Amino acid sequence: MAVIWLAAPEAHDYDAAADYLSLLADADTVSKTVAGLKAAKPVYRKAKDILRAGSLALLPETNVRVRSDLQKISDGKKLSPILLVRGNGPKAVQLQIADGYHRVCASYLTDENTDIPCHLAPWG
Question: I want to staple 36 with a disulfide (CB 3.0 to 4.6 A). Which of 31, 47, 112, 121 is the partner?
Fold first, then answer.
């Protein structure tokens, strides 16, 4: 079954991104970064590349959130696009999945080559 995506991230995704990013940066940087994510135009990246760029492990289908997203995919429900903060290769800073790690994993388990709509922004 193909993964179907919403046209734009849901409002609560930006709040979740800000919560996560607040563990990595100060409030001003987080605010500017989330503003950049909101303004970003969609780009499409493959699940396998997102996980590699973030040096992240694939969560198993037994993970409760991944399982929930796999069920949504099976039911033909749309998933929210992923929010990404660009890494910095020369400085060995990894890509951050600000929101959507479970959705990336569910997409990978469905088809690692699925084009995932992402809002990609630099750190603010």
Answer: 121
Give Cβ neighbours of residue 124 (< 8 Å, ≥ 6 apart): 28, 29, 30, 31, 32, 33, 34, 35, 36
CA angle 111, 80, 116 (to 5 degrees): 35
Count of C-beta atoms within a 10 Å radius of residue 60: 10
Q: Using CA atoms, how far apart are residues 48 and 52, in angstroms rounded to an integer?
A: 6
Per CATH, the number for 4-121 is 3.90.1530
Asked if 116 contacts 50 with a C-beta cutoff of 8 angstroms, the reply is yes
13-23: pLDDT as tens digits: 999 999 999 99
Give residue 70's identity as a one-letter amino acid code.
Answer: L
Rounded Cα gap, residues 58 and 86, in angstroms: 19
Q: pLDDT tens digit string along 39-53?
A: 999 999 999 999 999
**What is the SS3 assignment for 39?**
helix
- Among 9, 24, 105, 7, residue whose Cα is nearest residue 58: 105
